[in-house]
Fold each of these.
Amino acid sequence: MIVKVVGCVVGVVGSLLVYGILQERIMRSPYDDGGAEESFAHSVFLVLCNRVVAASVAAAALVWTRGAVRPVAPAPAYAIVSASNVVATTCQYEALKYVSFPAQTMAKSAKILPALAWGVAVNGRSYGAKDYLVALGVALGCAAFATTGEESESSRNGARGATSGVAAWGPAYGVALMLAYLAVDGFTSALQDELFRGRYRTENVYNQMLWVNAFSAAGACAWMTLWDASMGAAIGFVRRHPAAFADCVALSLASTCGQLCILYTIREFGAVLFATIMTTRQVLSILLSNAIYARAMTSRRWLGAALVFASLQSKALDFSGGGGGGGGGARSKSAATKSSSASTPRRSARTAARRRATHT
C-alpha cells in the first residue's frame, strides 16, 4: 500500500511539475540553438501536440484493455466540447507570455468560481453555504496574491512576441486571458457533465479521452490552417529550433502521464489523497518556478496562497464525507428526488478524473 501511495505521489507531482516548468520554458524563454534568438508564439501548435499525444495514448490504452473504441456520442457533441477545450487551453498557454507561472497557478485555483456559476446555469445544480464559503476563501486568496503585483520581470517578458498594441497592456492582457480561460474551462466541465454523465453516459474514461482529444486535435489543426494560417510558421519555428519541438513533445508526454496517474490515484485511493497531492503539487510548482526564475515571494503572497490551498483542502475533506454536513456538495434538480447514493464520493471522483484527462 505504501509503495502504491508513494508511486501515485511521485507520478502525479513529478509529471505535473515537469509539465508546468516546460509551459513556462516554452512560452516565456527565447530559443537560439546557435542562431538568432526567437520566441515561441504558437500556442495553438502546443495544444495540437498535446492533444495528438493524449489521443494516441488513449487509443493505446483502449487496445490494451480491450475497451470499446466506438464513440458513445455523436460528432457534434464532441466538437462542441473540443472547441471550448481548445480555446480554454490556448488562453492558458497564451497568458504565460504576460503573467508568471506562479500567478497563473494561483488563478487556476479559482476554477471553483466559474464551476459554481456554470453548474447552476448548465446543469441546474444548487450549492450549499460551505461551497460558497470555499469559493470566497479561494477568491480572497487569489486577490491577495495578485494585487501584490508582478515583479518587473512581468513587464519585461510580458509583451514578448506580441504586437505593440497588445504589448502596451502587458500583464492586464494576461489577466484577461486567464479570466477567459477560467470561464471557458468552467463551461467545458459543465458541458462534459451534461453530455457524458447524462445524455451519453459512459464509464470508459479512455473512450472519452480518445474522442475529445482527437476532435480537439482536429480543431487545433483547422485553426492553424484555415483561421490564422500559422501552421507553416509553427513548423518552420520547430525546424529552426529542434529544442523547442523536443520541449513540446516532452510537455505533451508529461501532461498525458500526469492524467493517467491522476486516474489511477482516484480509482485506488479516492478524492482526498488526490486533492492533497494536487495541493502539494501547486505549492511545489510555485516554489520551483520562483527558484528557477529568481522571483521573490512576499509575505502577502504567501498568505494568499495559504488561504487558497487551505480552502481547497477543506473542501476535499468535506467531500470525503460524501458532501454532507453544512449543505456541502451540489445536487442537480433532476437528481433531487433520487437517493443520496447517486452522488457518492467515488462517482464524483471519477468525474473529476474525466475532466482532468481532457482539460490540460
Amino acid sequence: MIGTDSAQQRAATPMARCTALLILLLASSASHAAEPGSAEAEAALAAMGMERAVVTSGPDAMEILVRHDTVRRPVLVMVPGSACMPALMLVEGNDGFGNISSVMPPSAASQREMGVHLALLERRNLSSFRHVYSKEETAQLASLDMHVCTERNGAVTLSQRRDDVLAQLAYLRRQPWAGPILLVGVSEGTDVATAVAAEHSSNVHALLLIVGAGMSQFFDFVHQARAAGDNASATQVLVTLDAFLSGNPPADYQGHGPARWQSFAIAQTNLDSLMGSTAPVFIVHGSADTSVPIASVDALVVEVMRRQPARALHYMVVDGGGHSLWSVLADPPARIYPPFVRWALEPPQGRTFSNVGVGSAP
C-alpha cells in the first residue's frame, strides 16, 4: 500500500466486512465433533432440510446447498460475500456445537411461506461442514489460513467468481423443480450477482443486493476519509488508485493483491454491471454501515434511476443498520426476503422506496 490507511479504510476491507456478516443459525447438543466428510456432517445438513449438490469436481470443485421439494417454484439463490468460507460452518461453543453461516439464509419456515426453493452457492473448492471449528478457530474465523482467498480456494477475481456462479446457475436451471432465479448478493456478492446478470441477463429474474451495492470501493474509501475529516487519507486513496491505473499497483493493498482490486474495484463496478442488464433490482442497505457507506449506495441508486428510468427498482434503507443488519433487526432474513419475493414476482414496476428499523412494520 502507498502511505498509511486510516481506521475507516481498515474497517471497510473485504475481510473486515465478512466478519460482521457471520450469523449463528442454531445451537446443537452434539457432544463431539464431526470428522470431515463424516455421516454426522451430512446429518447436520439433513437436520436443516438441506442437501449437498456437486456441480463440478476436480481441481475447481463447486457445490450448492439446496432445500427444495419436487414442485417447480422460484429459487432464492444466495451468492456469498468476500469471505472464503463455506456457506455453513459447524463451530464449537460453550454449550456444544452450533451452525454459523457466511451468508444470510431464511429459515425453513419462512422459505415455505414464501413458496420458494433455496440454493446457497459455495465458493470454489469450499464445502460446508467438512471441518469442525474449535473455540479458538471460531474466535478468529476471518484470519484463519484456511480462509485466505486464492485461485483454488474460493477464487480471487470477479471474472472467476462470475464464471463459477454461472456454472452453478446452469446446474440449477437443469433441475425440474427450479423456476425463475431470484439472485441474492450479500456484501461483495452483490458485485458477483450484478456481473452475472450483465453476462447473461436471461439467467436472472430479479436481483436482491444486500449491504454491498455501492459505487466502488475506492469511492467508499475516499468518502469515509472525508467524512472523518481526514483529507490526507482521502488523497492517499486517490494516489493509490492512480498507481493501479498507471500500471504500478502496490503488491498488497489492505490485505489483497492487485488482481482482486483491479477486477472488483477498477475494471468493473456494480454500476458498470447494472448498466449491462435490465433485471429488476431490489437494494437493501443500512444507514449506519461503516464498511459500505450509504452515500455510496445512494449515489448508485440515483445513477441507476437516471440512466435506466424504465428499470424496476426498490430501495430499502434499514434505519441505523450497520454492515450486519442484525445490529438493529432481530431477524433480517424475515424482514428482507418476503417483501423482495413478493415484489419480484408481481411483476415489479417503477421505482419505490421503503425504510425499516426496530420500530417499523414488517
